[in-house]
Write a structure and sequence with these properties.
Blueprint: E1 4-11, E2 15-16, H1 28-42, E3 52-56, H2 68-75, E4 84-87, H3 93-107, E5 112-120, H4 149-159, H5 164-179, E6 193-194, E7 200-201, H6 213-216, H7 226-231, E8 248-258, H8 259-264, E9 271-280, H9 290-301, E10 310-313, H10 319-328, H11 341-344, H12 351-366, E11 370-377, E12 381-389
Parallel strand pairs: 3-4, 3-5, 10-11
Antiparallel strand pairs: 1-8, 1-9, 2-8, 5-8, 6-7, 9-12, 11-12
């Protein structure tokens, strides 16, 4: 079978997902076109060789509507012959884009493909795609109570007996690890973005080097609700803005092709896409999918959890990676070693390839061989991917 390899992978630095954020003045299609253009420029690649562009985006309305992937391809100056499509698997959208791209290469449908994602949460707020409707209404009979993700995080904390101190300590460590990479470890993965005022954004806006567990302890509960408290008496209301991922703007993308095409083009692959998995999980608690996704991908890959050199588990909320780590008894030093979404942000559709960018750079810096990435997704799902550094 043809192997699918990652020749290059990049991201923008994060911008706060609110008016006035560092990237809020930039159209999301421009953010995505920036990383697309960087991939072909960095690799001296004729963009006309790209068979398809697959991009994740969750809020596909307003500035992000009408197939933003195709808009970005044209805005990047690619030939009009290059097609593109936009996919939505909620938070895992760009990770799913990577799966689709790699599977297309392995099946012989593609030789060269770009997978990535974008989200401008400052311009298209989370939930905008509902457009005044009731998208979950048909589930009322089967699932009479579908709480929001914050309640799912509270339930995970309660069921895995994670207290507020553990969550805040983990979250502070995420910021400290990310801050340790700024201007050094992240330099090779970040594509500078030129803003309307002519300045360049190339440092993650959401990382706070001074964050400590003590300062986080002073933040109030984000989701306290007395009615929901009666329904879920086990909840201790431990989720705060400090141990949750901030809303952010950003884009990321990977250049994927067959090993044969890479060799023919004189390009050196950085990693091989080794194994894939996707699962559904309980939509009421919603955020536990990374656990069965990891079990499934380890079974498919023939690897054990201890064969993996780095684990990227998306930090949608601190209980998600902590519960995952408890289930697999992993070395905490291998879990999100450069910080995660609590520090670097969670630009929904872009997060999958953002995590993969950071993971591959970490494997290269440390000489590790295998990386495992997994993330929870709205509606109760999760993707998992194993890459092998080359």
């Amino acid at each position: 079978m043809t192997s699918a390899v990652i020749v290059d992978i990049v991201r923008t630095a994060s911008g706060k997902g609110k008016p006035g954020g560092a990237l809020s003045g930039i159209h999301p299609a421009t953010l995505l076109s920036t990383v697309l253009g960087a991939l072909v420029e960095r690799n001296d690649l004729d963009p006309g060789l790209v068979d398809d562009v697959i991009a994740g985006c969750v809020g596909q309305v307003a500035d992000q509507s009408v197939n933003i992937a195709r808009t970005a391809v044209l805005a990047a100056g690619f030939p009009t012959s290059v097609p593109a499509t936009t996919v939505d698997r909620q938070c895992g959208s760009s990770q799913q884009a990577v799966h689709f791209a790699a599977q297309g290469v392995m099946a012989g449908a593609y030789d060269v493909v770009i997978a990535g994602g974008v989200e401008s949460m400052s311009r298209v707020p989370m939930g905008s795609s509902a457009v005044g409707g009731h998208p979950m209404a048909p589930l009322a009979e089967r699932f009479p109570s579908l709480p929001h993700q914050g309640i799912g995080a509270e339930l995970i904390a309660a069921r895995w007996k994670l207290d507020r101190g553990q969550l805040d300590e983990y979250s502070a460590r995420s910021h400290q690890r990310a801050a340790a990479q700024e201007g050094r470890g992240f330099a090779s993965e970040i594509v500078p973005v030129r803003r309307p005022d002519g300045t360049v954004h190339e440092v993650d806006e959401t990382v706070r080097a001074s964050t400590s567990a003590e300062t986080l302890a002073g933040l109030p509960s984000a989701f306290r609700d007395e009615a929901l408290g009666e329904r879920y008496p086990e909840i201790d209301w431990v989720i705060t803005p400090g141990n949750s991922s901030p809303l952010t703007d950003g884009a990321s993308a990977a250049l994927i092709m067959s090993e044969e095409r890479a060799a023919a083009l004189g390009l050196t692959p950085r990693a091989r896409l080794h194994s894939f998995a996707v699962v559904g999980s309980d939509p009421e608690i919603m955020l536990t999918g990374p656990i069965p996704a990891t079990e499934k991908i380890l079974q498919r890959s023939g690897l054990s959890i201890h064969d993996i050199d780095v684990y990227e588990v998306n930090e949608a909320f601190a209980p998600v990676p902590l519960a995952w780590a408890a289930e697999f008894d992993v070395d905490p030093e291998r879990l999100n070693p450069r910080g995660g979404a609590i520090a670097l942000g969670h630009p929904l559709g872009a997060s999958g390839t953002r995590l993969m960018t950071t993971m591959i750079n970490h494997l290269e810096a440390t000489g590790g061989r295998y990386g495992l990435q997994t993330m929870c997704e709205g509606g109760g799902m999760a993707n998992a991917t194993i890459v092998e550094r080359l």
